[in-house]
Amino acid sequence: MTKVLITGATGNVGVMVFKALQKYKHDLELFAGVRNTETVNEKILNHNLKSVNFDFTNFKTFLPALENIDILFLLRPPQISDVNSCFKPLILAAKQARIKQIIFLSVQGVEKSKIIPHHKIEKIIIDSKIAFTFLRPAYFMQNFTTTLHQELVKNQRIYLPAGKAKFTIIDTEDIGLVVAKVLTEPEKHISKKYDLTNSETLSFGEMAKKLSLGLDKEIKFISPNLFQFFITKRREGIPTAFIFVMIMLHYLPRFQKTPKTTKWVKKITGNEAKLFDDFVLENREELV
What we know:
The chain is 39% helix and 18% strand. The chain has a domain at 2-137 and 172-196 and 260-268: NAD(P)-binding Rossmann-like Domain (Rossmann fold). Helix 3 runs parallel beside helix 4 (117-128) and helix 7 packs parallel to helix 11 (276-282).
């Protein structure tokens, strides 16, 4: 039986991976990497899996968690920016544990931007000589139910320095389906790099209009300058490091070409990727 360790098990993507795997026949033995194995998160409680102690900030948990594991599903928590202190020892531990394949959740456009952490992580994985699959998703729709949620619900606005830049987008449910499919047929996807998007390219102004229609209330898009954005977010108590991540995600695309949409979700899962209107409809109660 192939043993799989899922990192970020209780996050948006991890939960969707477990959910998607219930739709496929497989003989995988699933392990959820969590900080505290004694407290089972309700998000993963009903899935057939075992929990193991794994903490990105504690390298002592790496090797024990990876022992006897065949495939590692790896992502980067947003708060982890120091690649060398975290991911180098993690990949070294994966090599020592003889991990057969790493499926890494990267980001679209990673090959063109050396400044983002995912670029360095991909290189570390390649240099390790461990078989890999790189999944490079577009902008998560679920950002509207997480990092952008309070601004959207409390102030009825999207407040980001994105200007008129257009973004490719993806629902984490579709990412989960892709990950599940790759896990059930890992050999088919070795050394593959997949950009995961739906069929849309939207600016935040256009997303605001779609949210307004779907939620039956006006949602404004405001694009502040960087100084205004930084000061506003600091007053809200957002850590400086995370503000810089938000700037990198939303401001830098103004000076780049609009990313291309792809058909990989359909090719891998057989299903069309979800549209933004569908996301708004399915999450309406949480977004109003």
